[in-house]
């Protein structure tokens, strides 16, 4: 294929940049960096040579590689919160140095000096690493630590409705976020109809958010990438942690299968809302049961074959279930009616890490992911099976994918990444299964036909140091999608660069083009399980986005970091449900949507973070605009996106009073979201009114109220703001065992934040006009949880 030859030519040209003299005088030092206590490989550790002012960081699997001149060097390994490791080496040939680092508070200041230099020199912009320790100290809702709720506190990320974990990044919608768990997409990231995320923080090692400036290795979404890596499991000793909260409990265990050779980690969580609600249901009738629960399970096994090969097997399964059962006794027989909703994700991956040599690292994965939603109703007769009846509506999206990613440390000025991927998508937007024994019916009807598509990708990126002050990341991603006899393809250029004004200050800029071959149909905006994933087809084109950003970063005193970014993003080929359309329909989804929509957003993001000391945290501010435009909507005129918020402020603080007590505090403010409500009403008469009634006498029952709506999303809800506080009480019970009590207050001053607004025409003094009524979900909510780490 022509594009393949182009990319191979680019690789060969970049490789030719290394002169013969460099190859003759340079050698390579490489290896893995692990955490000493568990032997778990560390992501993002800084590897630095102070004299030459060059360095690198470990990749997602703890691997690093540096080409250096022959001779004596000082090699420094550092990471925030870990003791610095320093080695004096005399390089005469290619050398492998595997390093173990450990937490050590006493050396924290020394660690951060090196770590800050990495932040200042990093070419990546619009990206934030979210420490898991910080996530766990954020005040909790119902005692549940929540990763996606913590991401909502970052600038450029808008939260959805009150209490929900949906995220809207730089004017994008939820389907434009690529959420990866160990490299596998998770299509529905919410539990409890959107109140909690599916990620168990006890099983997670690292989280990185990309809002723009996407490296070429990422593709398939327009607005963000949330890259979540699971822990590998302790290779040296058994341990774990658990928590008991108001609505759920969780437990994580890990340990060696073969010491320093193989390990495991298993983590489970389940709510007991169904158990708590059962007494309330039993008050109504002894023959009825029902309720709701959600649960998760994470598992991972890793095995070291030898110094150059390692295998990982990981799995995630989650379920939400709302159900009811009613049994009626008729003397000679009983009849049972059951029904409910059920939805959940299943993901799995088999991963192979291989070192070809001391400069080339390859990661090959086979992935599987599925999201399925089902609603069902059945009737069962105890003595006459011919009267049994079952009706079940379901939809799903399912992927099988194969991917290979290569990293080649060419020399200190060039770090190459390239790779290929192929995904088989299987979409079933809606199907109805009916089994009626009495009518002898057993059929399956696809309201929207099952569609399969193949998405291929090929990328190359090179991180180039032009001089001591200037570094760029140049990338190109080629995407190709086959669906229903149509082929969509295109090149997606990626460019990021930074220029160092000083050792502490840098200027950055980026441009990316992204394509997305799947859509999410939603008419709620809050990420309910009834939202449908559908593909680009011959009638519905893939989404496209262009995004540019400029920014500056300043690090001060190894403790404070400040950044500012301005961005502009333009999106095309967006889709939207038609008025009155829904997921449960007997017609194909393609006839229920408006296509060819445009969207654009722009804004300014400010971020100030304090990393060290007894008080840590950040303040974020976003000033933004977000617009949509469809020919069929709002008379073809632009209108504000539903989650367009002019101002968004977040404050996240943690103060450590002692080793036994600390406090977490958050405060958020956001301009009210845009929505549609009636601006007025008028009355109409039936068409045959004049033929059957005298115009002198008008019966009010003959009148029909018609609501008048203004321009789309022209009404703003009241501003949203809320404060939360959490108190953490720690105690070491014995050697190696620590317990923590967490007491949190959600919505500290009980702000009545808007969930939705309706017009009340009856319970007010002016029934002709009505009164706007605001509905809120959460007043102040206290919660408590007991956490144990061993």
TrEMBL record:
One Gene Ontology molecular-function label: siderophore uptake transmembrane transporter activity
Membrane topology field: Multi-pass membrane protein
Keywords recorded for this protein, A-Z: Cell outer membrane, Membrane, Receptor, Signal, TonB box, Transmembrane, Transmembrane beta strand, Transport
Keyword Signal tagged: yes
Residue ranges occupied by any TonB-dependent receptor-like beta-barrel domain in the UniProt entry: 286-748
Primary localization class, coarse: membrane
InterPro entries associated with the record: Beta-barrel_TonB (IPR000531), Beta-barrel_TonB_sf (IPR036942), CarboxyPept-like_regulatory (IPR008969), Plug_dom (IPR012910), Plug_dom_sf (IPR037066), TonB-dep_rcpt-like (IPR039426)
Limits of the TonB-dependent receptor plug domain: 143-218
Superkingdom of origin: Bacteria
Listed GO biological process terms: siderophore transmembrane transport
Subcellular location field: Cell outer membrane
Gene3D superfamilies, per database record: Carboxypeptidase-like, regulatory domain (2.60.40.1120), TonB-dependent receptor, beta-barrel domain (2.40.170.20), TonB-dependent receptor, plug domain (2.170.130.10)
Record's GO cellular component terms: cell outer membrane
Pfam families for the chain: CarbopepD_reg_2, Plug, TonB_dep_Rec_b-barrel
Coiled-coil residues: none
Signal peptide coordinates: 1-21
Similarity-based family: Belongs to the TonB-dependent receptor family.
Annotated protein name in UniProt: TonB-dependent receptor
């Amino acid at each position: 294929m022509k594009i393949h030859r182009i990319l191979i030519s680019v690789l060969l040209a970049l490789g030719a940049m290394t002169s013969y003299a460099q190859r003759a005088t340079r050698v390579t030092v490489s290896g893995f960096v692990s955490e000493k206590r568990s032997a778990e490989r560390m992501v993002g550790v800084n590897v630095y040579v102070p004299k030459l002012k060059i360095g690198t960081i470990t990749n997602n699997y703890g691997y690093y590689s540096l080409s250096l001149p022959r001779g004596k060097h000082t090699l420094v390994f550092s990471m925030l919160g870990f003791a610095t490791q320093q080695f004096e080496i005399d390089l005469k040939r290619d050398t492998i140095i595997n390093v173990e680092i450990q937490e050590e508070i006493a050396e924290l200041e020394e660690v951060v000096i090196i770590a800050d230099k990495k932040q200042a020199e990093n070419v990546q912009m619009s990206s934030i690493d979210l420490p898991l320790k910080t996530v766990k100290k954020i005040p909790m809702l119902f005692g549940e630590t929540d990763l996606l709720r913590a991401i909502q506190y970052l600038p450029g990320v808008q939260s959805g409705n009150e209490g929900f974990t949906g995220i809207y990044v730089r004017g994008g919608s939820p389907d434009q976020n690529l959420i990866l768990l160990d490299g596998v997409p998770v299509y529905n990231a919410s539990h409890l109809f959107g109140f909690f995320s599916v990620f168990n923080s006890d099983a997670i090692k690292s989280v990185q958010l990309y809002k723009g400036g996407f490296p070429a290795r990422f593709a398939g979404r327009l607005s963000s990438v949330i890259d979540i890596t699971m822990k590998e499991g302790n290779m040296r000793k058994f341990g774990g942690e658990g928590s008991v909260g108001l609505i759920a409990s969780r437990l994580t265990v890990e340990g060696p299968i073969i010491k320093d050779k193989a390990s495991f980690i298993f983590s489970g969580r389940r709510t007991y809302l169904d158990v708590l609600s059962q007494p309330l249901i039993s008050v109504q009738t002894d023959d009825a049961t029902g309720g709701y629960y959600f649960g998760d399970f994470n598992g991972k096994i890793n095995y070291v074959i030898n110094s150059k090969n390692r295998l990982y097997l990981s799995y995630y399964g989650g379920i939400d279930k709302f159900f009811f059962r009613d049994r009626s006794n008729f003397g000679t027989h009983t009849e049972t009616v059951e029904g409910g909703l059920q939805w959940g994700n299943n993901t799995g991956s088999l991963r192979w890490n291989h070192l070809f040599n001391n400069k080339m690292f390859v990661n090959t994965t086979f992935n599987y992911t599925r999201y399925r939603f089902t609603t069902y109703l059945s009737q069962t007769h105890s003595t006459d099976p011919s009267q049994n009846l079952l009706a079940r509506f379901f939809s799903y999206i399912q992927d099988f994918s194969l991917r290979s990613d290569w990293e080649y440390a060419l020399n200190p000025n060039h770090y190459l990444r390239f790779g290929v991927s192929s995904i088989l998508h299987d979409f079933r937007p809606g199907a109805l299964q009916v089994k009626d024994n009495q009518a002898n019916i057993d059929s399956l009807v696809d309201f929207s036909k099952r569609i399969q598509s193949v998405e291929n990708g090929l990328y190359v990126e090179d991180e180039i140091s032009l001089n001591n002050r200037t570094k760029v990341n140049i990338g190109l991603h080629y995407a190709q999608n086959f669906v229903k006899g149509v082929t969509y393809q295109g090149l997606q250029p990626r460019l990021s660069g930074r220029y160092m004004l000083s050792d502490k200050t840098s200027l950055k800029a980026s441009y990316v083009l992204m394509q997305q071959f799947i859509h999410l149909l939603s008419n709620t905006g809050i990420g309910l399980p009834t939202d449908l994933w559908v593909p680009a087809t011959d009638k519905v084109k893939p989404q496209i986005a262009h995004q540019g950003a400029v920014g500056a970063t300043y690090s001060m005193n190894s403790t404070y970091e400040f950044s500012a970014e301005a961005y502009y993003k333009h999106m095309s080929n967006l889709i939207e449900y038609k008025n009155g359309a829904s997921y449960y329909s007997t017609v194909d989804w393609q006839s229920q949507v408006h296509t060819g929509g445009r969207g654009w957003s722009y804004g300014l993001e400010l971020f100030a973070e304090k990393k060290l000391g007894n008080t840590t945290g950040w303040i974020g501010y976003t000033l933004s605009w977000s617009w949509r435009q469809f020919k069929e909507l709002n008379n073809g005129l632009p209108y504000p996106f539903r989650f367009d918020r002019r101002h968004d402020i977040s404050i996240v603080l943690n103060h450590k009073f002692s080793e036994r007590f600390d406090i977490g505090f958050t405060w958020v403010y956001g301009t009210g979201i845009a929505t549609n409500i009636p601006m007025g009403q008028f009355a109409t008469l039936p068409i045959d009114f004049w033929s059957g009634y005298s115009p002198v006498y008008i019966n009010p029952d003959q009148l029909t109220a018609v609501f008048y709506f203004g321009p789309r999303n022209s009404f703003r809800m009241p501003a949203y703001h809320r404060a939360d506080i959490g108190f953490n009480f720690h105690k070491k019970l014995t050697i190696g065992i620590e317990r923590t009590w967490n007491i949190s207050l959600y919505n500290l001053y009980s702000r009545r934040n808007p969930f939705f607004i309706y017009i009340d025409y009856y319970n007010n003094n002016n029934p002709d006009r009505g009164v706007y009524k605001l509905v809120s979900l959460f007043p102040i909510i206290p919660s408590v949880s007991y956490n144990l780490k061993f």
